[in-house]
Amino acid sequence: MIDLWFLVIAFLWTGYFVLEGFDFGVGMLAPFVGGDDDEQRQSLQTIGPVWDGNEVWLITAVGAMFAAFPAWYSGLLSSFYLPVVLVLAGLIVRGVGLEWRGKVANPAWCDLGIVVGSALPAFLWGAIFADLLLDGALPALLGGAFTLALSLLHGAVFLALRTEGRVRRRARVAALATGAAALPLAVVALSTLASVSGAATVPALAAMAALAAAAALIWRRREGWAFTATAAGIALTSAAVFLRLKEAPLPGLTLAEAASAPYTLTMLTWIGLITLPFVLAYQAWTYWVFRKRVALPR
Amino acid sequence: MDALDLARWQFGVTTVYHFLFVPLTIGLGVFVAGLQTAWHRTGKEHYLRLTKFFGKLFLINFAMGVVTGIVQEFQFGMNWSEYSTFVGDVFGAPLAMEALLAFFMESTFLGLWIFGWDRLPKRVHLACIWAAAIGSNLSAYFILAANAWMKHPVGYEVVDGRARMTDLWAVLTNSTALAQVPHVIGAAFIVAGGFVLAVSCWWLLRTRDGMWRGAARAALVMTAVAGLVVAGSGDLSGKLAYEQQPMKLASAEGLERDTAGAGFTLVPGIEIPKVLSFLSTGDLDATVQGTEDIQRRLEERFGPGDYRPDQSVVFWSYRVMLAFGLSTVGLSVLGLWLTRRRRPMPRLLARLFVLALPLPLLAVIAGWLLSEVGRQPWTVAGELLTAASVSPGVSLTEVALSLTLFTLLYGGLAVAEAVLLVRHVRKGPEEPAPAEVPAERLEPSLMY
């Protein structure tokens, strides 16, 4: 039961990184791939209907940690206090920026909020998990740089997949450029992780392969496959991280010590079994409804 | 001043701030859904204009409710790690359920609603706003079930210094929660009603457009009905507090000694005899416990310590809640009477409704202060003291930094939201689109 709930939480975090990864990337890239205000709005429109739902993956992941592994939840958040504060501040200004952008007189403040508020969590989640796994300022910096570049790449590929016209062309260039930064960072970060954990080696290597494939695919303008590859790269990176965390979710803490009692875990399992299929179904339906590429109004 | 004090301030500031936006989300969501339903049923243009107008105000506010809510979920672990480790087994379950059952629904369907105007069949689009509004209301239920457990813990046992859930159903049907849910949701509808009323009356004072009278009437009905619900559930909460939280009840009344046939203190010095006993139990002569006597009994049970919450905060917040809440509801009943059978809204009354906008908000803030300051010195009544709940590893500097950052950020955003709301209220609803262009032919609009 403990293993099952660890798997659920790893799944929720992975879903969060994959989904909000491109939200963050699009948020950071929108002012740069959009030549004018309309094109910028075109870019943000690609994540408009979905970013809030994607963010709930984080809320659910953290809520599930609270319920299933209280000591892990409280230990993680209180020991990474200031980075978490900055993540929250980022999510606040980003969310408000996105919702308010079309309603204010001067959207420059909202743009600043969206860019900074996307960059902060994209960097900090990598830094937090790298520091947790490898303990040190240098790994944290490297991990942060890696997830930042990864979000940019993922977001650029998503933009190329979901837009038409000039934004699509610029997004492809952005994807190639960020891919060139993300690949070396991926090699260093993931091989460092693999060097300390045997369990993480296979997914880490697979993640590198997926990201290399993504770069090749975007070069060949296979946007759908490239997006699949960046999503796989993020999912595999997350899998490597959680395989390592399974051994020790926090220094000096085992999963069994952190876990809630069997009764609670059983109840949570039923709730998850009943609700998750619906959640996945209607979120997937949202993506289906908005599957058309976003074009500029004529 | 130590980390504990600052952590408490931070919780107070971020929670009260969060709850400035939440009631509007809860109540206005349903109101907008109602407007869209009216449009769907009647096809009358002005319902659509009102839907889009209040929908925009709703969205400006919604963003703030969401982003400040994330802070709440993280804060338990950040500042209150001892509390979180102690209660997670029980308290975490409703939080996880809130995310799975309510937040996903609310956010996903709201996204579909915002961007789906010209993508979805009309009925499906209407269903989306209802799903989002139901999600908001469901989230209130789950978080209140968690909150009620802190004041009246049920369905658990303590094993090895940690609470363990023994009965999820008992946690979800806690009598305290069942009384609190209609009270809080009703209050949210009063806040939303007061908001719609103020906006509509502002327009009524400037135009002759009949749709504003209709909107004001709808808001009046909503506020008056919600007022009944809040009064009834508030009475029930008081009776439960008599049994479950006697210290809070006594502090709210400033009653120091156990008293038979206790009177209700309107303000210090003016007391209505026997009313407190009657309100608490239904019996004019029942004995109500007083703070000093409860303090003595708690010391016998839990050892030396001060088990009284801050007396003046609890006493006055109760009166502010009652005064502002009741006056809002009273005004709306008066408004319903004066506008009966197609009578126009008197201008003086319309002005009054605009000015009364902050009253229900102040009432809900006072209500939360009563509820949570009144729970002190416990985080979990009878089980865990607030002083023992705080994160041991988090320094004063860290809490001070985050408190400063959140306060500055929140202050700035509050001003921005107010400016934005005022601007969009002044702008008013958009003129109806020319009828000859069928909706399907319109280019998808860029919403952001």
Automatic annotation (TrEMBL), chain A:
Keyword Iron: yes
Keywords recorded for this protein, A-Z: Cell membrane, Electron transport, Heme, Iron, Membrane, Metal-binding, Transmembrane, Transmembrane helix, Transport
GO biological process: aerobic electron transport chain
GO cellular component: cytochrome complex; plasma membrane
Pfam families documented for this protein: Cyt_bd_oxida_II
Transmembrane segments: 6-35, 80-97, 109-128, 140-161, 173-194, 200-219, 226-245, 265-290
Membrane topology: Multi-pass membrane protein
Annotated localization: Cell membrane
InterPro entries xref list: Cyt-d_oxidase_su2
Any GO molecular function: electron transfer activity
Family in the record: Belongs to the cytochrome ubiquinol oxidase subunit 2 family.
UniProt-recorded name of the protein: Cytochrome d ubiquinol oxidase subunit II
Organism name: Nonomuraea rhodomycinica
Source taxonomy: Bacteria, Bacillati, Actinomycetota, Actinomycetes, Streptosporangiales
Automatic annotation (TrEMBL), chain B:
Membrane-spanning residues: 15-33, 53-71, 91-115, 127-150, 184-205, 217-234, 316-337, 349-370, 399-422
Any one Pfam family match given in the protein's UniProt record, by short name: Cyt_bd_oxida_I
Primary localization class, coarse: membrane
One of the record's GO cellular component terms: plasma membrane
Subcellular location: Cell membrane
Membrane topology: Multi-pass membrane protein
A biological process term (GO) from this entry: aerobic electron transport chain
GO molecular function, one term: electron transfer activity
Statement: the UniProt record of this protein carries the keyword Ubl conjugation: no
Record keywords: Cell membrane, Electron transport, Heme, Iron, Membrane, Metal-binding, Transmembrane, Transmembrane helix, Transport
Similarity-based family: Belongs to the cytochrome ubiquinol oxidase subunit 1 family.
PANTHER family named among the record's database cross-references: CYTOCHROME BD UBIQUINOL OXIDASE SUBUNIT 1, CYTOCHROME D UBIQUINOL OXIDASE
Protein name, entry field: Cytochrome ubiquinol oxidase subunit I
